[in-house]
Amino acid sequence: MTSEHGRSLDEMAADLTDRRRPFARATVVRAQPPTSARAGDQALVMADGEMFGFVGGQCAVESVRQSAVDSIAAGEGVLLRVLPEGAETYPETSGARVAVNPCLSGGALEIFIQPVVPTPIIQVVGDKPIALAIVDQARLLGWAVSRVDPEAAGVWEFTEPHGVVASIIASHGGDEAAAIRTALDHHVPFVGLVASVRRGATVLDAMDLSVTDRACVHTPVGLDIGARTPPEIALSVLAAVVAAIRRDGLAGTGAPEDAPAVVEPRREVDPICGMTVMVSADTIEYDDESGSHWFCCKGCRDTFVARSAGGLQAAQ
């Protein structure tokens, strides 16, 4: 199956993954005639709703686009059941979502949508046992890890400048302030300093941080679990990072510089069938004296135009 510029969807997915661009893969797992899709048909959906590939007609496409965008934002897969109006519905359960489309010509679809979100990156400054334990445990979580030599803490550059969710300084001395400053300058949302309460406060007080920057720095870093050994301390540190990710939805340091800004897609209601559609450059639109209107398909637009023309003639 091909996508943009003749590339296969697999090639496109590999490229997006390499460039750390979030997307979702939608796969038809069941199709009931007379739907045009077949089991195994696939599409890739970007975070802004742009789609490549084929998973059915326009009515099914709108449901897939919206579910995929929501799936990417939540970081969770979903089984989408697309049903024509009047069909026997399925109960909505965890991990499943039902879309009843009035304009669907018949048949039903089940489509599994799997988000592919860039792996979080954690930077660890230090070469002592606690730093090494943090590195080992972060890898067990499936994160990408970059360990920084504490001797270069003041001049180091991120080997992966995009997607860093946390920088942990566990050098136990050295130029910790320079390491913190570098992380803040790269807009890392969670910066942790492994230190005692007194030493951590001393380091931060000497830096004259802004209120915003100070809120990003955590010291002593880690949840209070009574940790004593390096592995236990590493566990408490990573637990604090995970808690921040889940609680605050930490994003990394951003998409690559060549990535277009992701804007939450605009959603409008088709005035004919009542379906919610995502507004993009290729969304069917019709403008009249009452304003702009968007439609799931040409049939709905033509019906709207005909009704508008009929109402205008009656008024005359």
From TrEMBL:
Protein origin, superkingdom: Bacteria
Record InterPro entries: MoCofactor_Util/Proc, XdhC_CoxI, XdhC_Rossmann_dom
Gene3D superfamilies the UniProt entry points to: NAD(P)-binding Rossmann-like Domain
Any one Pfam family match given in the protein's UniProt record, by short name: XdhC_CoxI
Domain XdhC Rossmann: 124-240
Domain XdhC- CoxI, first and last residues per copy: 18-81
Coiled coil: none
Name assigned to this protein: XdhC family protein
Annotated organism of origin: Gordonia aquimaris
